Amino acid sequence: MSGPHIRDGEPYSGPHGEGAPASAAIAAAVPDQAPVDGDRPSAQDRFTAGRLAATVERLRGEVRAAHAAAEGRALVELAKGVIVERLGCSPARAARQLAELADQAGLSQLELAADIINQAARDRVAEAAGDFLRVTADEPGTPGSAAGAGASVAVRLRTAESAALSADDTQSVAESLLAHALEPLGAVAVAIWTTGPDASLSLRGHAGFGADEAARWHHVPPGVTTAARQALTGRRTVWYPSLAAAGIPSIGRTRHPDGGRVVVPAGTGGRIHGVLEICWARPLDPQPQAVERQIEALAELCAHTLEALPAQAVSTRPLVPGGDGPLELAELADGLYDPVLVLTPHLDEEGRLADFRIRHANAHFQDPAGRPRSAVDGALLLEAYPATAGGSELFEQIERVYATGEPFRSRRTRLTALVDQVPLSSLADISISRHGDSVFLIWRIEDESARLASLLQHAQRLGRVGAFEEDVLTGEITWNGQLFDLFGREKTEPPVPLRDLAAHVHPDDADTIRHFLHSVLHQRRAGSTAFRLLRRDGVTRHIRVIAEPALGADDRLQAVRGAYQDISAQHWTEVALTATRDRLVATEEEAEERNRLTLQLQHAIMPPAKPPLDAPGLDVAVRYRPAETESLVGGDWYDAVVLPSKKVLLCVGDVAGHGVEAATGMVVLRNALRGLAVTGAGPGQLLSWLNSVAHHLTAHVTATAVCGIYDPESRTLRWARAGHLPPVLVRGSGAADLPLLRGLLLGALAEAEYEEAELRLEPGDTVLMYTDGLVERRDTSVHDSVTQLLATAQLPADCLERRLDLLLSRSKSDTDDDTCLVGVQVT
Predict the structure, then answer these.
(1) What is the pLDDT of residues 686-696, one digit of tens each?
(2) CB atoms closer than 10 angstroms to residue 156
(3) What string of DSSP letters covers 318-350?
(4) Mean pLDDT in the chain?
(5) Domains of the chain, start order
(6) Which residues are in the PAC domain (predicted)?
(7) I need a labelling partner for 304 at 20 to 30 A (CA). Which of 67, 495, 580, 774 fits?
């Protein structure tokens, strides 16, 4: 069905008028004799078939135009009625007044009629049309259609509303919505679903989908997840930019696999009567809010239409034949053994669901607060149980069941009732279901004694505890099932009396059991003891028995109650724990001694301070701060020595790891570097040789290092680095780190080359070399830590020694690692 055709501001019904005899025209166009099967169609036959198709298409257009004209006339007549009511004039005068106003406004009578109806109605359709017109201009369309250049969104929506309200089935509603309101938005198909009493979905109307596709989707059973189901259960509009990307099945997916979808629940008064599903052929871009309002208005129109149409026949038998709703449900509720409340919706002045009225409480009703059923019968649910609107979410679930028809079940739900402003809580199993326009709320308050008995059984099973009671007067003994399993006896066998218990225990524990029985049976005191139980199947279990006497009115012993507990696992755990503790003590002692020797070795090689060097024009100071924890003794090292060439070797390094391996690796590298430096080679060559030492002559040691050779005569420092932080230069009142030269860490590869740099120092300059223990923090990046170091290094200091102490005292490192610091100052 297309939109209404407009000609000179009036609906146009086509050349043949409304209800043209299409069958007669088609019959006249049919040739007298069709081609014989197997004969090739002649040119005349093809010409005749073409004329027939054109005639059929023309007649279809005329029928659509006739329907559109009728819908347009309905809007014009409705606007005339508004004018008659407002002006108190005759219908003829109202028609002339409408024509005059349309000429003055430069609008067609249909557009003006839609505006008059919008102003008079002030409903969702009017709001949606007004929002859309404020945001976007009217869409261009084909000349002569309601979506044409002279038509407005209000005309489209009111035309769709008129067609939907005048339709006698949902199929016509779907066709009208698509033709008048959705095709201008780019939609290509629409489906109207209704909800059944079993929460199923049925396709009641569709447009733009093939007949075969609609037949396959005529019914969706409850529990099947589809696009419409998502909107129904969520009670909200769902937008799918691409249905294929969402992976949700729905009608028309094979025809438009990448198309967008909008699925809107259609409901009134808190109840969802159906779902409106709109399909686009291409992926759907985000839409403005005005379009969303327009689609919601169409869903509301669809809901009112579904509510007014006859109910769909379903295969399920009515719950109660005949009668009138809540009364029959009340009779049904009285026949149930569980407490039942029959609820009906309570709407506010605007027709929205505000609460539920308690129409009936059955005879088995048990109020959590102890009130009689007459106290809640007839009251509003939120007034009788205000706590249901709080954290229990019970009211929200009732709303959802009423809206969607999908039942809700929950076990051990906490119910809270207010009695004199005091909250009383209880646990209950909840069942909520919708029957017609009413809701069944069934709850079963949990039996506290049964629950405690169940908890006790689970506790005995988990704790491997078996309970008993023995009547000393009659000799009757009661065991629970867990105790038979504990003793390895069949449940058909008699229990073991307390007096015979010594015959079932390890011989070494027999005296312990006799003392225990004497205390309980003769001294009548509660007691407990542990023993080894010898079972008939050869298994020995470690058991703890606890018993107490039960005395009568004459203070005589009548019975003994108690329990046996299997503590075998605990016993063997204690044995294993004792052995482990002994091994742990020995291991700790060995580790302590190992760390002590490692620390002694490191301190012997790396003293915290170093005597002054005999280097003219150069002050050298070093600091070494060992790790605070002996287990973290590492491989940090430094060296500052005057070479035979009178040049000064300056270096710091850090061997990966901790313990003896790191300390011995540090000794090897430090001594090797000293020996190699005698050759007079530069720092880059020295690090290359030291890399070969680390790779070939140690047990897979890796380390970082920075090495410098200072020439006192030229005051130049040549330096290189192997994966280490570069030195820091303090000049005047500023401090900066030196360039990050290329150089791999030592020992990583068999051969490596190291870049050198040369720095000419001036009197007063200070160069600092350090290991990462000075700056490393767990919560701070290395760049930020070095920046903090530079800020401290540029602080004024009386001398080099004072500057090194200041750096150590203000270090914010938190890794508890070794720290080496070497400083040289040109005098």
Answers:
(1) 999 999 999 99
(2) 29
(3) PSSSSS-THHHHHHHHHT-SS-EEEEEEEE-TT
(4) 78
(5) 326-446 (3.30.450.20), 451-566 (3.30.450.20), 607-826 (3.60.40.10)
(6) 527-579
(7) 67
